[in-house]
Design goal:
The structure holds 4 protein chains of 4 kinds. Chain B has 7 helices and no strands. In chain B, helix 2 packs antiparallel against helix 3. Chain C has 29 helices and 2 strands. About 4% of the residues of chain C have low confidence. A two-stranded antiparallel ribbon of chain C has the order 1-2. Helix content of chain C is 68%, strand content 3%. By secondary structure, chain C is an all-alpha fold. The chains are: A mainly alpha, B mainly alpha, C mainly alpha, D mainly alpha.
């Protein structure tokens, strides 16, 4: 029987990797994927808890998280395309109109 | 047995995650991510969440990632632009941060009580559907609205400007 | 029932205000008058109902009409309710009645004015407020009406807002009234502080102010009582309010200037109704005043002085409306004198009669002014009696009434007041007698200047033929344009052609009011006269007024001077009555003889200039205030401190922002890094907490 | 984990795999012959009687061809692609039931054997999951062979997959609603009930719209005519597998046909009552036969369509997918839900 903490540890590691990736990657799409990675790490935690506490809610949350992720991906990628059209580049550092 | 299974999957998924971050070509990261999702799906199944395992594959691997890859191919991004990264220091910043965060989170999780509830495991489609349409009906409907908005939004965002000039 | 009385004028005002611009004068007049007529009829009906009602154990008859509880905070409760008891009953009758007559008068008088509808909107609004004031069943409602009439008077005085003097007069009225209202508000607060209620009548759970006040001991007659925060203080604060609204010393200065408004306004607001609100309020709170002899004394003295001063000023005025204005002030002084002497009944009786004849006089003067093409200077009149017969007759009646000609309304009321002062049971020592003499003197002066006005206006040579307008531009000129082209035959005023009598709409109200002011007095014949001359069977009627008011009015008796004995002595009363009537007749005669001779006799300058009171006020109060405000408040407090702090704050924010700006390098990933670091920090902090717990 | 179960599994897997492979091989032959007839010519009929040995010959040929990997190609992905394409296609079969259980008695052993490889209570979802994975093979191939035709093919297929997967799932929702289960076996069992003992409650009768939608979507999912844009010979030479040769190419082929089989069997299970037919209850072994016949019918339909219909244009494809299929599918879902409320 795998102890709960193993799952949690795994998800922690995954989450951290994703988080680091978010601001280490330069390509917008890669950043995006790192975000998805973080989401999934959280999902793992939720499911682990839900199955260890015999409580369905966690899985429902995961379900909703997935839908939200799908929506997010749709909009996000549309944004990516728009950005690419405007400034022939996907480098996050090039999107710096805010800089002083 | 189970533990070995878990360990294998864990190692695989961590590797995949790392490669997501490390790969220079978005497509490679994407495929590593798909691998990760597969591993996670397997883990879900091992947690008696077969339904979510399947959904995980269908939604993430089958739809979202296809979308990613479609965009990548559409924009035909072979590799990260070869220009010098002006912000290498972010790596320096990121890795220690990451380690700290990992340690912290692990510590927190180690505080989680060891649970053992002897009830039959759940996660079959029926119970999920039940929960979804009784307790969590409201969030469910809200997500549907959210998706609708997302559809509209992405259509608006992704359309070309010249189309706008046309109509 | 009562709400009809109250809200009919409001309805009219709303309709006129919203749609009046598009309506024709005829329609406007119809709406305005009919709304007032409705409330008049309702008022009479309510009054009849009141009469039919059986008095309760305390002998009080009352109709009350509660719409809703307006404010309920802790012990404080103010109902939005109306109450009709004998006092407010009488008041409402003549308010609505006179108001109706004046409305009818105004329809003709104001015709041709541009923004005709505005005038009637304001006028109806005023009626609404006035009726609210009268029918209020608690001090707060009364205060609402109080402020409302103030507002309307401001609007109506400033009706010709293109004229500077009108605006100035309006502002003056408003500000001076503010001072009074301040006192009134404080008084009401103090009342609540003392009695935990502001209601006039006992309700379930709420005892009225007066029942509570009745149980309080009579406070002693000492200046310390003024500031003791007791009933005396309340009374004084209320009285300050009254001085503002009813133009008593020192706050009377606004009323003469208020004549800048159209004449009907002067008649309605600044003679008949609004200015008597102060008296009404004091009579209403007679319970409180009755316990505060010091306050009563002050009221009496102030009233007497006001009466005298105003009369003396009035004798020297050339502007016909000014004369009437000052006479109003002086008559109000009489009323306060009566209140101060504890004779609330007679005071209120005088309010009623005064409403009749003063409205009559103002409307008459309005008719004269109308005939003279809006010239108000008496020096350019004269000899009008053969042109304006009705006006002359009615105004004559009014003059005799106010001068106290025997058996006219003014005679009864004023005589009663004088006698009550003489035989006052509250005024300390011989003060009663002194004030009585002063009152007599004032009565004489009153008779004189009223006669003077009549003589100058109606007798003698016809000066208006060679008169030219606008020589007297300081105030009081209604709008010319419309009238000139209305009276096309002499577009330059009096040159050629004769003045002609006013239309029916103006003369009928005059006649009605004249009748009232002639016979109006017989409902309150003083006991002394009644005892001597009238058959006993008539006493019931001749004394009906006082008998009717009896339940709501208490006559305070403060032992210590021989007043009680004197009050019983009908012989003495008769003597004083005869005395006063003689005085009146003599004075009228003097006035006629003197001014028939040389009507334009020059009066002492200091009288003509009203004792330079305005100038003194300017010098003592207004200018210092201006100086302080400009240099101190504006130049220093506002500019330096307030603006400085605000701008300084802005500068500070600006600096901070431009400093923090460097945290935004525009590198998206760096932002992500910030978020991440933040998360790390926060979680770390949680640990810190957890570990230390 | 008893040994018997292990044996049973391995045996089942072996049999199914063998049958599937040969079937695939012979479907190719069938297609070529049929197309031949449709086009008024003889198909391959030289090798063996009626050319029955043709598949074998093809296989040998593929094996011995030279393998060419383009120089600029992305080697790893290039090699990975065919596997990625094939594995899900074959794996799908694991959860497809082709009959009820039969009892075999062997040397005194009697054993109840379910006619399926594994049993998952969400097998329907699993099938969808795996089919949706199948696309990656194509995408990878298109990308890795570094050739604009291939890239175009990959792009098209990914877009096409996403678009039509939606319609397909929505079409299936109706079935799920009716049978109230995601388990294919259960779904088939539901269809075994009859009205008045004669007419079977096949879903095709209760929801024909859903059936048509599913069929169209399935054809699109398998990149077959008239939806075969990813490999449109006339526009993209050969689409995603332009650069592929010898066995890798064959693998793509096998994957495609495996997908066809999967789709057909899904259609059978979901709408045509699976292995249900006369006397199945008495004689369970009839089940697989009925099943095979029905699947065969769909396969023939595939080939027939290929022989008759022209190809869509890309924008037409998208328009059709998004503006016709999906709305109709949604409407169908609503309709079916209402129907379900009425019936049960």
């Amino acid at each position: 029987m795998v102890p709960l903490s193993w799952y949690l540890a795994l998800s922690a590691v995954l989450f951290t990797i994703g988080a680091v990736g978010v601001f280490v990657k330069r390509n917008v799409i890669s950043i995006f994927m790192c975000i998805e990675l973080m989401l999934n790490a959280v999902n793992l935690t939720l499911i682990a808890f839900s199955s260890y506490y015999r409580e369905i809610s966690g899985q429902l949350f995961v379900f909703i998280v997935m839908t939200v992720a799908a929506a997010e991906a749709g909009v996000g990628l549309a944004l990516v395309i728009a950005v690419f059209r405007n400034r022939q580049s996907l480098d996050a550092d090039d999107a710096n109109l805010l800089k002083l | 047995m189970e533990q070995a299974f878990f360990l294998v999957l864990a190692v695989l998924s961590v590797g995949a995650a790392l490669s997501v971050v490390i790969q220079r070509s978005p497509l490679y990261s994407a495929f590593s991510l798909i691998g990760l999702f597969a591993c996670l799906a397997a883990l879900y199944v091992s947690l008696q969440a077969q339904f979510l395992g399947a959904i995980q594959i269908i939604v993430y691997a089958g739809a979202i990632m296809v979308l990613f890859i479609f965009v990548i191919m559409l924009l035909n991004i072979r590799k990260d632009a070869q220009v010098l990264d002006k912000h290498r220091y972010l790596w320096v910043l990121g890795v220690p941060f990451g380690l700290v965060l990992a340690i912290e989170v692990l510590y927190t999780l180690s505080k989680v009580a060891k649970v053992s509830i002897d009830k039959p495991a759940i996660g079959d489609s029926q119970s999920i559907g039940y929960g979804l349409y009784t307790t969590y009906l409201m969030p469910f409907e809200l997500t549907s609205i959210l998706i609708l908005l997302a559809i509209v939004g992405s259509v608006i965002l992704a359309r070309r400007d010249d189309e706008k000039e046309e109509n | 029932m009562l709400r009809v009385i109250v809200f009919a004028p409001l309805l009219g005002a709303i309709i006129l205000g919203l749609f009046g611009k598009r309506l024709s004068e005829r329609i406007i007049a119809l709406i305005a008058c009919s709304s007032i007529a409705v409330s008049t009829i309702a008022a009479f009906a309510a009054f009849a109902k009141l009469l039919a009602q059986q008095p309760d154990s305390a002998g009080v008859r009352r109709i009350s009409d509660t719409l809703f509880t307006w404010i309920q905070v802790g012990a404080f409760r103010a109902d939005f309710a109306f109450m009709l008891d004998p006092l407010s009953g009488v008041m409402i009758l003549f308010v609505t009645g006179v108001g109706l007559l004046i409305h009818i008068f105004a329809t003709a008088y104001m015709s041709g004015e541009d923004s005709y509808y505005r005038f009637f909107t304001y006028l109806n609004l005023f009626m609404f407020m006035m009726i609210t004031l009268v029918l209020a069943d608690n001090y707060l409602m009364m205060f609402v009406g109080w402020e409302g009439v103030g507002l309307c008077s401001y609007l109506l005085i400033g009706y010709y807002f293109l004229r500077d003097y009108a605006n100035d007069a309006a502002k003056k009225a408003f500000i001076v009234n503010r001072i009074g209202d301040f006192g009134f508000a404080l008084g009401v607060m103090l009342i609540f502080y003392h009695f935990n209620t502001i209601s006039f009548i006992d309700k379930t759970g709420i005892a009225s102010v007066f029942t509570l006040a009745a149980n309080k001991p009579i406070e002693d007659l000492a200046s310390t009582a003024l500031f003791a925060g007791g009933l005396t203080t309340i009374a004084i604060l209320l009285f300050i309010g009254a001085t503002g609204k009813s133009a008593q010393i020192p706050l009377y200065v606004w009323l003469p200037d208020a004549m800048a408004g159209p004449t009907p306004v002067s008649a309605l607001i600044h003679a008949a109704t609004m200015v008597t609100a102060g008296v009404y309020m004091i009579v209403r709170s007679n319970m409180i005043f009755g316990k505060a002899p010091m306050a009563l004394t002050i009221v009496a003295v102030v009233g007497a002085l006001t009466a005298f001063f105003a009369a003396t000023i009035g004798i020297a005025q050339w502007n016909i409306k000014k004369v009437l204005a000052y006479s109003t002030v002086s008559q109000l002084g009489y009323m306060f004198l009566a209140c101060g002497a504890g004779a609330f009944g007679p005071a209120f009786f005088h309010v009623v009669t005064h409403a009749f004849f003063k409205a009559l006089l103002f409307l008459g003067s309005g008719s004269v002014i109308h005939a003279m093409h809006h010239n108000e200077d008496m020096r350019t009149m004269g000899g009008l009696s053969k042109y304006l017969k009705i006006t002359f007759a009615t105004m004559g009646a009014g003059t005799l009434a106010i001068a106290g000609f025997p058996l006219l309304s003014g005679f009864f009321s004023k005589d009663e007041i004088l006698w009550k002062v003489r035989s006052s049971t509250v005024l300390p020592g011989s003060l009663g007698t002194i004030l009585w003499l002063l009152g007599l003197l004032t009565a004489a002066i009153t008779a004189i200047y009223m006669t003077r006005m009549m003589v100058i206006t109606f007798f003698g040579e016809e000066r208006f033929r060679n008169a030219h307008h606008d020589d007297h531009g300081h105030s009081g000129h209604d709008d010319h344009k419309a009238h000139d082209d209305k009276h096309g035959h002499d577009s330059h005023g009096g040159h050629g052609g004769n003045p002609h009598e006013s239309p029916l709409a103006m003369t009928i109200p005059l006649i009605v009011l004249a009748i009232l002011s002639v016979v109006g007095g017989f409902m309150g014949v003083p006991e002394g006269l009644a005892e001597k001359f009238l058959p006993h069977s008539l006493h019931h009627y001749t004394h009906s007024f006082y008998a009717f008011l009896q339940p709501v009015i208490s006559v305070p008796v403060i032992a210590g001077n021989g007043g009680e004995a004197l009050a019983k002595d009908h012989g003495a009363e008769l003597v004083s009555t005869i005395l006063s009537s003689i005085v009146a007749l003599v004075a009228i005669g003097i006035g006629y003889l003197v001014f028939r001779g040389k009507p334009l006799m020059q009066m002492p300058a200091f009288l003509e200039n009203k004792y330079f009171i305005d100038e003194i006020y300017d010098a003592v109060i207004v200018n210092p205030l201006k100086a302080i405000s400009t240099t101190g408040l504006w130049k220093f407090v506002d500019v330096v401190i307030i603006d400085g702090s605000v701008n300084g704050l802005a500068k500070l924010v600006n600096l901070t922002g431009s400093g923090l700006r460097y945290l935004q390098p525009g590198i998206t990933r760096l932002y992500a890094a910030f978020i991440f670091g933040g998360a790390v920090f926060v979680i770390g902090w949680f640990f810190y907490v957890v570990v230390n717990r | 984990m008893d040994i018997a179960l292990l044996i049973e599994w391995s045996v089942k897997i072996g049999i199914v795999f063998f049958i599937l492979m040969t079937a695939l091989a012979y479907i190719v032959l069938l297609e070529r012959r049929l197309l031949g007839f449709i086009q008024m010519r003889l198909g391959p009929n030289r090798v063996g009687p009626f050319g029955l040995l043709q598949p074998l010959a093809d296989g040998i040929k593929f094996f011995f061809k030279e393998e060419i990997i383009p120089h600029e190609a992305d080697r790893a992905l290039y090699i990975l692609a065919p596997m990625v394409a094939l594995i899900p296609a074959l794996t799908t079969v694991a959860v497809i039931p082709f009959g009820e259980s039969v009892t075999v008695s062997l040397w005194g052993y009697t054993r109840e054997i379910g006619l399926y490889i594994t049993k998952v209570d969400v097998s329907l979802l699993v099938v969808f999951a795996l089919t949706s994975m199948g696309i990656y093979g194509i995408v990878l191939a298109g990308w890795s062979s570094n050739n604009k035709y291939s890239l175009m093919g990959g792009l098209r297929s990914s877009a096409q997959m996403i678009s039509y997967e939606l319609a397909m799932s929505l079409a299936v929702v109706g079935v799920v609603v009716f049978s109230g289960s995601l388990d294919l076996t259960q779904i088939v069992k539901e269809q075994m009930n009859t009205w008045g003992g004669i007419i079977p409650k096949w879903n095709i009768l209760t929801q024909p719209i859903g059936f048509l939608l599913f069929l169209i979507a399935a054809i699109a999912e398998t990149n077959r005519v008239p939806f075969d844009l990813p490999e449109a010979e006339t526009e993209l030479v050969a689409g995603f597998h332009t650069e592929y040769s010898s066995m890798k190419f064959a693998i793509f082929f096998i994957a495609e046909y495996a997908n066809m089989v999967t789709a057909s069997s899904m259609a059978t299970l979901l709408f045509l009552g699976g292995w249900h037919g006369p006397f199945v209850k008495e004689l369970p072994l009839l089940g697989p036969i009925y099943f095979t016949l029905k699947v065969l019918f769909f396969l023939v339909l595939y080939i027939w369509l290929r022989g008759t219909l022209p190809r869509f244009r890309y924008d037409q494809l998208m328009k059709f997918g998004w503006k016709f299929m999906i709305p109709v599918a949604i409407a169908n879902v609503v309709l079916v839900a209402g129907l379900a409320l009425l019936l049960f």
